[in-house]
């Protein structure tokens, strides 16, 4: 029974997150269009909602090209590595509070492991291998440069990502995401964003890097006419990279909600499940909002931000939290 329930949860998570990733592309076009005084998708279906289906048809039907001198096996495996890492990271994430159906209690989490937050960071970081392998195996100098920039930013900011979470773990005394949410059950005043706002900002910036989002990403720079390490990809293989990016955005929006914004705890008369969806949706919108508002940083500016500002701040917050606990 437990095995069957786990299989069903896995299928539901894959189906829902993949669908939301497609819907996220539509939402991003509409949000950017509104902020830039454009129309956005409007011709295919009511309000352009059919654009999602047409994009899927285009990706599935477009010719799947493999460069002549590319390493074909690794070239084809790279998108799968990125998407697998993005979806596996969802395993210990509780998207909703537990609820009961026909007398059976449902836990909206695939696996409540004791090191949940550490598992999310570790699993999502494996997406970098797909980007590196894709760029190196494509036999394309632009893909190679894109993969090297991916290494530059992701490895650096993964360190910052982990350090910014340590003060929260020290306060809770557990790596379990459920325990972190339960520690914030005292209402809006008990959210960790109030006692550790610096850690929240640091984690938010690092999340932009992990999700390859403007203004902090270098893997695929929007002003350029190339696609970074995915330059040589076409058809559904490019689409898989895209799905992995949006799945990561959903994952990190949910993680920031769970760790810093009270998670699925109810607020006033609003049920916990609704609060979880609202806060996660706002953070997802914030990713889109920032892309419409800020330009890219240069590589030297990004690395200076990482090692000269965020690293000392992270270590300082760990030291201050330790003093407060003692």
TrEMBL record:
What does the record say about its membrane topology?
Multi-pass membrane protein
Taxonomically, which superkingdom?
Bacteria
Main location group:
membrane
Q: Where in the cell is it found?
A: Cell membrane; Membrane
Q: Name one GO cellular component term.
A: plasma membrane
Q: What is the lineage of its organism?
A: Bacteria, Pseudomonadati, Campylobacterota, Epsilonproteobacteria, Campylobacterales
* Name of this protein: NADH-quinone oxidoreductase subunit H
Where do the TM regions start and end? Answer: 7-27, 73-93, 113-139, 151-178, 190-209, 240-262, 268-290, 302-325
């Amino acid at each position: 029974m437990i095995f069957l329930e786990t299989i069903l949860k896995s299928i539901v998570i894959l189906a829902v997150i993949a669908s939301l990733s497609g819907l996220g592309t539509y939402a991003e076009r509409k949000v950017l269009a509104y902020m830039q005084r454009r129309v956005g998708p409007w011709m295919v279906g009511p309000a352009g909602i059919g654009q999602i289906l047409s994009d899927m048809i285009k990706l599935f039907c477009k010719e799947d090209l493999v460069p002549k001198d590319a390493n074909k096996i690794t070239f084809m495996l790279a998108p799968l590595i990125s998407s697998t890492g993005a979806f596996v990271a969802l395993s210990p994430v509780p998207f909703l509070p537990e609820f009961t159906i026909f007398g059976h209690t449902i836990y909206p989490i695939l696996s409540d492991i004791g090191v949940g937050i550490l598992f999310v960071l570790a699993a999502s970081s494996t997406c970098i291998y797909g980007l590196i392998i894709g760029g190196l195996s494509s036999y394309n100098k632009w893909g190679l440069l894109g993969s090297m920039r991916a290494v530059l930013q992701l490895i650096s900011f993964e360190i910052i990502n982990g350090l910014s979470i340590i003060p929260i773990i020290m306060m809770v005394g557990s790596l379990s995401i459920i325990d972190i949410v339960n520690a914030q059950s005292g209402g809006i005043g008990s959210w960790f964003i109030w006692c550790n706002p610096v850690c929240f900002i640091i984690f938010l910036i690092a999340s932009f890097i992990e999700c390859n989002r403007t203004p902090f990403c270098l893997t695929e720079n929007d002003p350029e006419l190339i696609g970074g390490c995915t330059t040589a990809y076409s058809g559904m293989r490019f689409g898989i990279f895209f799905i992995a990016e949006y799945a990561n955005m959903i994952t990190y929006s949910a993680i920031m909600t769970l760790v810093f914004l009270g998670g699925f705890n109810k607020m006033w008369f609003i049920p916990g499940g609704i609060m979880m969806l609202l806060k996660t949706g706002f953070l997802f919108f914030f990713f889109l909002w920032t892309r419409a508002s800020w330009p890219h940083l240069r590589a030297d500016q990004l690395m200076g931000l990482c090692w000269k500002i965020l690293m000392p701040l992270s270590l300082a917050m760990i030291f201050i939290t330790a003093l407060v606990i003692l």
